[in-house]
Hemoglobin (Rhizobium aquaticum), 136 residues
Amino acid sequence: MSDEETITLYEAIGGEETIRKLVARFYDLMDTLPEAKNCRAIHPPSLDRSRDKLYDYLTGYMGGPQLYVEKYGHPRLRARHFSAPIGVAERDEWLLCFRMAMDETIAHPKLREIIWKPVEQLAHHMQNREEGEPHA
């Protein structure tokens, strides 16, 4: 396969439209699922800014335009999230919402599998509190 025939993950999943649907569904789930209450609690009352930032980040992460980097610079995700107490519950609830949103918005199972592993690893990397450790 030549470079001209290679497509990005961003293109393979449906580009902007799919990323927007994924992000919208993710935050709708986080905002409404009782199983995501701990994760929701560490977010601001309005999720609008979070939605915009996740959309920008995922667009670049999946191989589309580097919107997040253009607006905010290097993601430094762990450092940017360090003020939020992310423990096992918050991490797992975030993953639950992301998995459900991905399953509902990305049709091809192989594409979901490709996306899942690094997202799961990133969520574990973002955890900054151990089980039972008090929130700051």
